[in-house]
Automatic annotation (TrEMBL):
Organism per entry: Agaricus bisporus var. burnettii
Name of protein: MYND-type domain-containing protein
InterPro entries given in the database record: Ankyrin_rpt-contain_sf
Region (Disordered): 80-99
UniProt superkingdom: Eukaryota
């Protein structure tokens, strides 16, 4: 664990000890997946910081398989799961290839739904934890993740705080793993995904609580990675905190954050009209951001618009103008 994470955890322990019991109790919060504000947000956050997955206690047989066995055993387990779906008579007509594809999809869905530990981490977050737990086997766990990605297990699974493996991988609390982050991003992960506190990974990154040079360097590199992969610094969390404002408030302590923002602002301004106004990503076939865009509490969901679709720029502009009028 980094000094930054240890201090962060200590502050949350203090917050938990001084909890005034307002709002719903933790047990009720764990039964929902809604976004939280105020003391309820703090209550869930303190819980997630104070508890951790313990392999001896929290892993089932499959989790232990992932932790201990080589990729060949993982592949064999996957094939066995597919075979088990093929054995019963399939009521849906189709050829063998169709049945095989459906079986693979069923297995991928099953793996996607699996969770472990007190914070209910999904499979890619579990593999990420293993990369930290056994650093000498990081490549093995990466290969396992790549295998499941290739098979079609989605990478957007969330824990009880609605945090994805991608967010955990580069938020520096406690993980700084840009190699793993890039793999998850390439597989469809969204750097602007918001958790139950309304925060993106950038909210976690910029709330740096240490003067440790290595932690500051990691935070700056993670923040730059966030921006270069479509990160938006103008999204507010559920308590109204905006990343850009946070960076401005600590610019004396961490000038690198605002320098990175200014540089990215200049790049996006130069590309105005040819890059997404939300994430700044540039793609000749991309008209608007394909992610769920959550800004100021309004959810604006667009899809990548390919040239084959009958959707004009003017209609998108009109829809965007209507939404802006609501903000």
């Amino acid at each position: 664990m980094t000094d930054n994470y240890d201090l962060w955890k200590e502050l949350h322990d203090i917050a938990r000890a001084t909890d005034n019991d307002e709002g719903r109790v933790l047990e009720d919060l764990l039964k929902t997946d809604e976004m939280l504000v105020g003391i309820e947000s703090q209550r869930l956050r303190s819980y997630c910081v104070s508890v951790h997955l313990e392999p001896a206690r929290d892993l089932d047989d499959f989790g232990t398989l992932l932790l201990q066995k080589p990729l060949s055993d993982i592949e064999q387990d996957f094939d066995s799961r597919v075979e088990s779906h093929l054995k019963p008579s399939d009521p849906t007509p189709g050829n063998d290839d169709d049945m095989s594809r459906r079986a693979v999809k069923w297995v991928c869905d099953d793996l996607y739904r699996l969770r472990w530990g007190p914070t209910q981490v999904p499979i890619y977050s579990l593999l990420e934890d293993f990369r930290s737990l056994k650093p000498d086997q990081r490549s093995r766990f990466l290969d396992i993740a790549l295998f499941y990605i290739e098979k079609g297990v989605p990478v957007d699974g969330k824990d009880v705080s609605a945090t994805t493996a991608l967010t955990h991988s580069f938020s520096i609390k406690p993980t700084f793993d840009l190699e793993y982050a890039q793999v998850l991003f390439d597989a469809g992960g969204d750097v602007n995904e918001r958790n139950r506190y309304g925060s993106t990974a950038a909210h976690e990154i910029v709330q740096l609580l240490t003067d440790d040079p290595q932690s500051k360097e990691n935070a700056t590199e993670s923040f730059q990675w966030f921006l270069s992969h479509g990160g938006n610094v103008d999204v507010a969390d559920s308590d109204g905190m905006v990343v850009r404002d946070l960076c401005e408030s600590i610019c004396v302590f961490m000038p690198g954050f605002m320098k990175a923002i200014d540089k990215e602002d200049e790049r996006r301004a130069a590309l105005k009209g040819s890059c997404c106004t939300f994430c700044g990503m540039q793609n000749p076939k991309l008209l608007v951001c394909s992610r769920c865009m959550k800004a100021k509490g309004v959810v604006i969901k667009y899809e990548h618009v390919l040239s084959s679709l009958d959707c004009s720029l003017s209609s998108i502009s009109n829809e965007h103008s209507f939404i802006q009028s609501m903000l």
